Amino acid sequence: MTAFASALLRGAAPELPAARTLGLCAAASAAFGAAIGAYVGRWQILYAALKMPVYFLATLALSFAAMHLFAARERRTFQVALETVALTTLVLAGLAPVALLASLSLPYTAVVLALTTAVACGGVVGVVRLHARLRSLRLTAAWVAIYQFVGAQTAWLLKPWVGSTGTDDRVLPLRENLEGNFYESVFRIVVSMLS
Predict the structure, then answer these.
(1) How far is Cα 73 from Cα 61, in angstroms, rounded to an integer?
(2) Could you tell me the pTM of the whole model?
């Protein structure tokens, strides 16, 4: 897996096997999720480690149909989308030690902003690779808009990411998560930190 991850980072493997790439996405994002789950500790570490791959792979699955409409090349479209997500999750796995340190030492709002910033950094790396593969600003912009919108709402539905969900009898609070949205939440956090 190390050689495979290295080839992905270098962009040396133009045709990555889908099963191995999906496995890498799951493992890398689980490492980052576990680091974020350390904010609460105990079973939250496992919960976040399981939820993070669901987030990335569900967002890819939900976004793919719309992405394909813009690219109109099914095999290449999926390969490029999968490579982008895999690279993003690999960067997040590299940031997992920093996320762990943040989870163990910072207050809640700072941990949430650190999580958001780390995901944004991984996303930027993925988008740079995406653009290099597509060589089209229009396609890259369309993919970023679609994936970002779907990803933000998927993250909102799967929350909480930082904090315990063991305070009540629900595992995924979908009903409550349908109120508001990701952007409103980030705005409130920033305002609360600045006041």
Answers:
(1) 16
(2) 0.80
